[in-house]
Amino acid sequence: MTQIVTRFAPSPTGYLHIGGARTALFNWLFARGRGGRFLLRIEDTDRERSTPQATEAILRGLKWLGLDWDGDVVSQFERRARHAEVAHEMLARGTAYKCFATADEIAAFRAEQEAKGASYAVFQSPWRDADPATHPDAPFAIRMKAPRDGETVIRDEVQGIVTVRNENLDDMIVLRSDGTPTYMLAVVVDDHDMGITHVIRGDDHLNNAARQQMVYDAMGWTVPVWAHIPLIHGPDGKKLSKRHGAVGLEEYQAMGYPAAGMRNYLARLGWAHGDAEFFTDEQAQEWFDLSGIGRAPARLDFKKLENLCGQHIAATPDEKLLPEIEAFLEASGQPALSQVQKNGLSRALYCLRERSKTFPELIDKAHFALTSRPLEMEEKAAAALDTVSHGILHELTPQLQNASWSRDELEAVVAAVAAAHGLGLGKIAGPLRAALAGRTVTPSVFDMMLVLGREEVIARLKDATA
After folding, report:
1. 309 domain residue, yes or no
2. 308-341 tens-digit pLDDT
3. Motif 'KMSKS' region, which positions (predicted)?
4. Same domain? 352 vs 286
5. Which of 151, 174, 231, 388 is most buried, by the most CB atoms less than 10 A from its CB?
């Protein structure tokens, strides 16, 4: 059985778009779930727009998302000699020809067709069937000999059977007169040489498939399985753009979404496995198939993203969650945690993870464990520490000093002091929150006490009643 080989082939002309990230994920899932290989190729033939910084951004984005690739990253530009070699091989096979038409001649043809009212006209090169003896000593491009009659059929795993009338296919240039290969040639040669069995990419490339299939046929190569996936639209149903919010993958890390939640959400964006919403990487790899991809564009839904991310934060072990929170702080330009803060956050995770959908939410809830004395009091928290509250907290402090530090014992001690003043537990919780966190909205006061420990709790209560 042939090993499955997929690839992700972005152009390094900017950030990694979330749509590109989903394409990479689909390729990764399809290969990994079948014991195949997932390869990465940087399509950097556009030298004016391609930058090393964009390449680095793509690699960072893939690494953050947790998509590992096999072998070295392939540079398309560095393979240009191989592309040219194939173009000349097609010349020798008679499936391509030398075209000496100048740019001015082609422009004149276009202008003539426009004058006739033709919206689109295939350029018919006069050199297609010219006798080589008539070839001038001049620069030439190499053009494909496109079929003139019949149809080209694309068998697509997502779009179904797509038929293109050959009369609409031009004799596309595969090698320019300056010796540089075109994108259409380079992609096919690279995919063939890399052994790609399945080309899974956005449906904006569907029109390219018919033209690229000509190259496969001209070289006698096996055509890969095509799977053109619909693009991602914004919540309003229009093509995703910056007006909808973040479109670059790294922005999502900086916004505090966990990578596992992003993988889960992007997998569900246009693909389904029954009614499953939340699933692990292992399940996604086992379940993912091309038949589950819909033909309609997927719509970005931030509420669904947040809900899934919250579930993944809750399900992630502490030892994996803490490093990802630190990476988020770095990505968002926030100060790194001190060792004391790391220790405090690590102790607090058990009471934070279930109620946090993003890392900023979690960090905000962890304020009590990350801050240090003397606490900075919010206005409402300061108001909760009135004279009566001072007296109650002052009375509570020595009793906590002698309590065994368990939740049941702490609840019993606080309840007893509240009852002695004819108060319910809720009435004393407000001043306690203020004293322990400097805020009125916090995790449970008993969770905070357990996380902070006896010494720190006593010190904060004394500060509050001083």
Report:
1. no
2. 999 999 999 999 999 999 999 999 999 999 999 9
3. 239-243
4. no
5. 174
Provide the residue count of the chain: 466
Per-position b or e across 405-438, b if 16+ CB within 10 A of its CB: eeeeebeebbeebbeeeeeeeeebbbbbbbbbbb
Q: Determine contact, residues 235/244, Cβ cutoff 8 Å.
A: yes
pLDDT band for 412, please (50, 70, 90 cuts).
very high
Average pLDDT over residues 357-365: 97
pLDDT 10s digits, 146-170: 999 999 999 999 999 999 999 889 9
Q: Which residues are annotated as a binding site for ATP?
A: 242
pLDDT in tens, 198-240: 999 999 999 999 999 999 999 999 999 999 999 999 888 888 7
User: What CATH number should be reported for the domain holding residue 11?
Assistant: 3.40.50.620
What is the separation of C-alpha 147 from the centre of its chain, rounded to a whole number of angstroms? 39
| 431 lies in some domain | yes
> Would you state the pLDDT for residue 119?
58
- Which residue among 63, 238, 239, 242 is the active-site one? 242
Query: Contacts for 373-377 with beta carbons within 8 Å, 24 or more apart?
Result: 373/456, 373/459, 373/460, 373/463, 374/463, 375/437, 375/438, 375/460, 375/463, 375/464, 376/438, 377/434, 377/438
Residue 351 one-letter amino acid: C
- In 3D space, the residue among 444, 257, 285 whose CA is nearest the CA of residue 358 turns out to be 257
List binding-site positions.
242
Give this prediction's pTM: 0.92
Cα-trace Rg, the chain: 32
pLDDT tens-digit readout, 103-161:
888 888 878 877 777 656 678 899 999 999 999 999 999 999 999 999 999 999 999 99
Task: Domain of residue 42: give its range.
Answer: 5-75+232-303
pLDDT at 118: 65
98 carries an active-site annotation: no
Residue 58: band (very low, low, confident or very high) from pLDDT cuts 50, 70, 90? very high
Cα 449 vs. chain centroid, distance in angstroms? 39
Average pLDDT over all residues of the chain:
94
Question: Which residues lie across from 142 on neighbouring strands?
Answer: 98, 175
3-state helix, strand, coil in the chain (%, to 5): 55, 10, 35
The rounded distance, in Å, linking the Cα atoms of 362 and 356 is 5
Note whether 82 and 224 are same-domain residues. Answer: yes
Report yes or no: 175 and 84 within 8 Å, Cβ to Cβ. yes
In this structure, what DSSP letter does residue 239 have? Answer: B
